[in-house]
Amino acid sequence: MKNLKKISLLFVLMTFVISCACMKDKNTVSGIVVSIENGKDGYTAKINTAKNEVYFATVSIVNVGGPEKFKRFKEGDEVSVKGEIWKTDTEKHIKVKEIVSVK
């Protein structure tokens, strides 16, 4: 009986860890591109959202899944991207895993 409780607890813990890992890349940012800084295998786009939040979106060929899924934004484009969000003391960043739309 003690082993059954341990196994059940382990199962619940693993389910929680897996669900959190899957949710990590479900973050979406949408807004207007206000500037672009080119990099080695991609670029960083500064995106202003409708809520006046600023995100620095790192878009690289490797992270989006290859050159066929890679798109280059231009200033003024309305974009929507999904990826991994993290924050510093003063800035919000997103490592883009999927380019949802570019208008």
UniProtKB/TrEMBL annotation:
Q: Does the keyword Signal apply?
A: yes
As given in the record, the signal peptide range reads 1-21
> Which key words are in the record?
Signal
- What is the name attached to this protein's record? DUF3221 domain-containing protein
Q: Which organism is it from?
A: Flavobacterium gyeonganense
